[in-house]
Structure formats: structure tokens, C-alpha cells
Amino acid sequence: MSETQTPKRLLHLVNVRTVGGVERMFADFLAHPPPFPVQHFTVADHPAIAPAIREAILHHSPFFSVSEFSGLRVPKWPRALRAANRERLIRKLQPDLILIWNQFTDVRRSSHGARWPCPTVYYEHGGAWYEQTPALEKAFFRRVDGVIAVSQAARRMLQLKYQITQPIDVCLNALRPGVLPVEKPIAPRTLKNNRPLMLGSAGRLVPLKCFGLLVLTVKALRARGIEAEAIITGTGSEQAMLKALIAREGLQEQVRLVGLLDDISTFYQEIDLYISASMHETFGLTCIEAAAWGVPVIAAAVDGLPEAVRDGVTGICLTPTLSRETYKALTQASTDFSPLVYWPDTDRLAPPKMLDPEALADAVLRLTGDPDRYRQMSAQAIADVAARGDFGALCEDLYRVMARYLPSGA
């Protein structure tokens, strides 16, 4: 790489108002040293940046909002005003490549025609599961030259649901920086006999995560005479529902809602099994985080979860059988779900189902009933994550794909 090589100008269209998996990944990506000279620009619809990622983003990239122009607020309506401001920013910043992070940017009211003045790549990290209007889908993909998908499931969702023909590169998600300690390697787990069995789950407390199923799994295990408890870390709209469910089942002493943790390592060190009860996961990043700590995982065999959890090796993937209606009746939780999920066993899109708490309890007992098997699965989980490659390797893959679309290469 030449020391005098002109930096490639990468413009990122991304929502950084809230923090989820893709927003944290974007902030970590900006911080990773690129393989060729790069100048980043971040453009968002909303002027706010979530406090957890604000410093990281502003340290590596100038930030622009399409809702502001010369210090004045651009009204949300009519939408054409903000669309025009986005086009103005793109022309002003003159990027060599636009990378759109997991959002179907509404360009229907753009005055710039069908294309942007540089190649555009869309990064799919779950946005395709949400419902869009056909007009928005058509206008959006007309702007896209290529796609990066976080999983094979994401690739198939785009192909089956939207019938897109653009090339799709799959760059599997990787363990984010700082999850593991640097001073010593993680050792395989052994089950502790002097305390209750500890289950855990982490993430935003939103409907699709189905955290209520973890509460009911604790109930099912205790009904079988198993001293089981659970820890749930995260915040979100379903927190009140979870508190009510825990109280209704009389599990206030057995199920803890601990909110956001500054040090997630304490969570992974305390639990024996990680339960991903989600009705949908584009990949399942927390599953490989748990595996990296040597914690076997139980998850649904839908979407990208089987790509994160190797059934019978690093955990168990269960076929969901619970209907939306039954889940709602059991938990009183919101069922504001994606209408379709990807079923890898049949390579099709179909309505979602949830995991049965009794089936989850069965799987827990299978994994913990044989201490030798549990320890072997813990060791395999650690090795599997190590073999996947680190976050730096993922960033190299992302830059490698982007380089193909840059006008003169990189």
C-alpha cells in the first residue's frame, strides 16, 4: 500500500439513534484499522447518536443528519425535503462508495434519478425481515449494486422474499472486540453441584426475543424438581411484561432482570446454559458470545441460529412448535413479530413459531444430565468460536468485498 495513496471516501447510511447488534458492529468497524486508506462519513436520518456509541463514531467519522441543513431543522413532512437533503449531502461529500447499514432507505421521492453517482452496497443484518411497501423495495434495490449478508439465512431471505438479483457476499458475524479477557484463555466449564442450575439470556427486551419463554422454562424445570434459576440482561419495551410474568408465576427469587451490564463477562461466568428463545435471529451473535465463554447454547432451528449454534456440538437447535396465539396466552407478551422467518431445513419462508417451554426444559436436562458431555460441549464451543475468526478478520472480509465495488479498486 502506497503511503501517498488517496483515501477512499466511504459514506455510511446508518441509524445510530439506538443501540443494537448492527449499531455496535458499525462503531467497532469504524475503529478497526482499514487495509487501505479510508475516510469515513456517517449520514443518519436522525440527529442523535446513542450515548453508548457516540464517542466511538465521532472519533472516526464526521457525522451528518438529513434532518438538519445549515443549522436549521428539515421537517419530516413532506418526505421529499429530507430525501433531497440526503442527495445534497451525497453530492457534497463525493463518496467513492456508499454502504447502507441494515435499512431500506426511502429514496422514492428523490430527485436524483434511479442511481447514486457511485457504487452502493447494502449490508443486511435483519432489515429484510421487516415489512416494506413494494414501491419502497423496488426503488431501494434499484439503487443497490451489491449486498453483504451477515448469514446464509439473510442471503436466502433477500432472494426468496425480494427476488433480488444483485450479487450477495456472506460475511458471517464474528465475536465483537472486548467480549473475552485478554490475560488468559477461557477454560471448559464443569457443572457446579453446590448451587441451582443457572440459565441466562441477553439482548434487547423486545417482542421477537421471546424472553417470557425463559421464565416458563424455569417454571417447567422446577415443576420437575430441578433447582433452576435464570438471569436476563437487557432493557426494552417488554420489561414490564416480564416483571408481571415473573410475579404471576411466583418466580421473583428465581428469575432476575439485571438490566444493561457494563461488564458482560460477569453474566457469562455466572450462567451454565445460554437460552436463545428468539422467534427470529438473523445470525445470533449472543450465541457465539456465550460459546466463546464455554457456555453451551439452546436455540431455535430457524433463520441464522443454526449457523451460530452447531446442533449437537456447541449446543442444541430445537424445532419451534408453539403457535403465536399459544405463546401470547402463556405470557401476555406482544406478538408484534415478523410475519415470515426462514426455515433452513426446508429452505423456505413460513410464519414463525416459538419454542415450547417443556421442550426447552427437556433440552436443558439432556445437556446437564451428563457432566462429561456438558464439559465436552463446553470445550467444543470454545474451539468453534476460535475457528470462526475474530472481528478483525470480519472487517478484512467487509473491506475486501467493498474494494470490488470501488471505481478503481483498492
Descriptive account of the structure:
There is one protein chain. With 410 residues, the protein is α/β, with parallel strands linked by helices. The chain is 36% helix and 18% strand. Strand 14 (297-300), helix 10 (305-308) and strand 15 form a beta-alpha-beta unit. It is globular and about 65 Å long. It starts with 7 loop residues before the first strand and ends in a 5-residue tail after the last helix.
SSE diagram, text form:
Layout: E1 8-13, H1 21-31, E2 38-44, H2 51-60, E3 63-65, E4 68-69, E5 72-73, H3 79-93, E6 97-101, E7 120-124, H4 134-142, E8 146-149, H5 152-162, E9 168-170, E10 197-202, H6 212-223, E11 228-233, H7 239-248, E12 255-259, H8 265-270, E13 273-276, H9 285-292, E14 297-300, H10 305-308, E15 315-318, H11 324-331, E16 341-343, E17 348-350, H12 357-368, H13 371-388, H14 391-405
Helix pairs in contact: 1-2, 6-12, 9-13
Entry keywords:
alpha/beta; 6-stranded parallel sheet; 14 helices; 18% strand; globular; 17 strands; 7-stranded parallel sheet; 410 residues
Low-confidence stretches: none
What is the average per-residue confidence, as pLDDT, rounded to a whole number?
Answer: 94
Number of helices: 14
> How many runs of DSSP E, i.e. beta strands?
17
Rg over alpha carbons: 22 Å
The SS-based structural class is: alpha/beta
Beta content: 15-25%
Shape: globular
Separation of the first and last Cα atoms: 9 Å
What is the makeup of the main sheet? 7 strands, parallel
- What portion of residues is helical? 25-40%
Strand order of the largest sheet: 3-2-1-6-7-8-9
